[in-house]
Every structure is written in C-alpha cells, then in structure tokens.
Amino acid sequence: MKKELWSPSNDMLFEVLPKLSTKDLLKLKCVSKEWQCLISDRSFIQVQLKNMEPPSGFFYQGRYQWCDEDYDWISYMPISGSVATEEVHNNVLDFLPENIVILDSRYGLVCCRSIFPCNVPLIYICNPVNKEWKAIQWPNPSRECSITLVFEPLKKPIDEFTKFKVVIVSYQDETSTEGDGYGYFSFNIYSSETGLWRRSGEICYCNRNMLKKGCVCVKGIIYWLTDGDQILMFDPENEISLLISIPLPRNQFNLKPEMCLGEAEGRLHYVLICEHGLQLWVLEDRFTSQWDLTYTISLKELENENNKYLFKIAEKLASNFTTDDIPWIGTLAFKDNILLMRVSVNIYLYHFETRKMRHLCSLSALAPKPFFVATVVPYTMSLVPLSQS
User: Which of 209, 281, 325, 360 could form a disulfide with 247 if both were Cys (CB 3.0 to 4.6 A apart)?
Assistant: First the structure.
C-alpha cells in the first residue's frame, strides 16, 4: 500500500505533501496508517528536506562564567507566529538517558554531550521530533574542546541510513614559560558510516582560543570565532584548515563590539553590533578573507524603528552600561536573516528583511537563574530518522 501511495502518478502526494512543513506533516501522520508509513519513509523525508524550512526556534542553555561546572537546565524558545507569548519549553530533550549540554544542531538533528562530572562521558546525536538518539563514545573527553555536528543530507542522502560526522577541535598550547612558542588546533573526526574516530593529519597554528558561542557549519565546512581577529575554518571532507580575518579588527572600536557567526542561504554571515550600529557581513572568499557588507543600520535608526524596545541605546553603549558586568546588548545567534539578541534582561528577534524587532521572552523565563552567558543553538524541525530501518 505504501508503494502505491508513493508514486509519481499520485499528484497530491508526490507534489504537495513534501512541500509541507514538518509541523504540518506530524499532524498528517495521524490521518491513517498508510499516511504515517509514507511520511515516515526515508525516500519521502529525503524529498521533503529539499524544502528549506525557516528556524523553528532556539535552544538556550546558561553557562557559569567563572567556574567549571556544567548547568543542566535547557530551554527551547519557539519562534513561529508573529505574537510574542513568552512560550518556553523546558522538556524538549528529556527523552535522552541523562542530562546533557547542548552543542549544535543541523537539519533537525541535535548534538549534545554528557554533563561533567561523569563516569563515562558520551556524545549524543538526537532528533527531538521522533525522539530517536544515538550515543557515541567520546575519546579523551574534555570540557575545553569544541564539538560540532556535520550533517548534509542534500549532499549525502539518508536513503539507507543517516550519514553524519562529528568533529572535535582541541587547542594545544606549546608556549614555554619564557613566552616563546605557538599553539595549534587539532581535529578528530567521527563518521557514522564507519562508526570510528580518527585523528586528522591537519593542524592549524594559532595563538588564540575559540569562543564558546562562535561555531557554525555551512555546507559541510565549520567555522569558529576566536578571541582575536580571526575565524578558524575546517573542511572535514578534504581535511583543510584556514584562518580567516574578520571584517573589521577589534582595535578599530572604542567600545567592545558584540558579534556572532551564522548561516543564511548557504553562506557564512558575521553579525556585528558596535558604536557604528548593527552590521551584517557575508563571506565572499574564505581564501582571501573577502567580506561584503550587506546590511548596516545606525544605532539611532535602529532605536527609532524599534522604539518600543530600545531607549537611548547609543548613550548606554557609550557609557559602557552593563548588567552584572555583562554588556547591555548582546548577539546570541543568527540564522536565515534572523538575529536572536539580548537587550538588558530581555530576548528579542531582529528580522533583517523587515528591520523590525519582536520581543520573545525575558531571561527569567528561560531558567530558574537568569544567565547572561549562554550557549544558544538555532533549531529547525525535521523528520530525519536515526534508526537503521
């Protein structure tokens, strides 16, 4: 029966259903057993993935800034609709066997790890929609490394099983007590096709550390913000690394700028908030560090167009106004021309296309303790299975 439903001759199913959103398809699975079987079929899901959905929401997990403890409270902020409801979910990942630290997300799959301290730390890849998950052994577990999911189903189809990679980047500091030497980044790669880890022969010399909030994967290539004027790039397919200069060096500003990396239309973007305003840059050539400024708005214009939420923003930035020693305004995450940002103790969405802000929720709605430092991960729903069936 499933084969009869899934055929080019049936225009409604072949042409219409794959174009629907994941949220709508989840409701349609209840129509009949045949529809449930069809919508759960890998061939159907592969076609539906070509319908690039906008972000469904953002995961938010606070971090302790001055200690090594992990924090296990994770909130999910859905962003569908146009009315702010302060709707926050705290149990989206409760199907996992332990409390986790969220790391990354791609095409509906979420990458996370065990919370320290832990006897046997693991890395998890899961899909919150179907509540499927896969545990991966973690070689040389460390809180100091960065773990990233590489999942490109349009390049590597999910027809037989779901193919993905996990990349761990670690920093080795070879600086001597006299201050001589140079550190470098090394890379470990896990492949779901082999089920094995291996150490890449590629290393990247650098004297800067990665920032916790600065990782994004674009078309299978990973980028990390550092605490300097460079972005670390690694291509796990060809095992090539590179240091890319940011659009504007940090010493150009009188005030400490706020920035984040993100992806839109398959390209790397760099969001910057500084005394000059809000800027959006797109990477044109990673080998020459060529960036194009695609959007800019002054602080005064930003406030005038969103005076419901912003008041004397330029003056507060100029006077280095902070909340508990944290910048008054901060960039949290960027995805598909949507910026998640914090202003004081509130979370907002800024849409670059409409130039409008929307209040999403307050920090107090995200956790029992309002964290100003957090890991924030954009999330898009999908039906991607992790089972081998």
Answer: 281
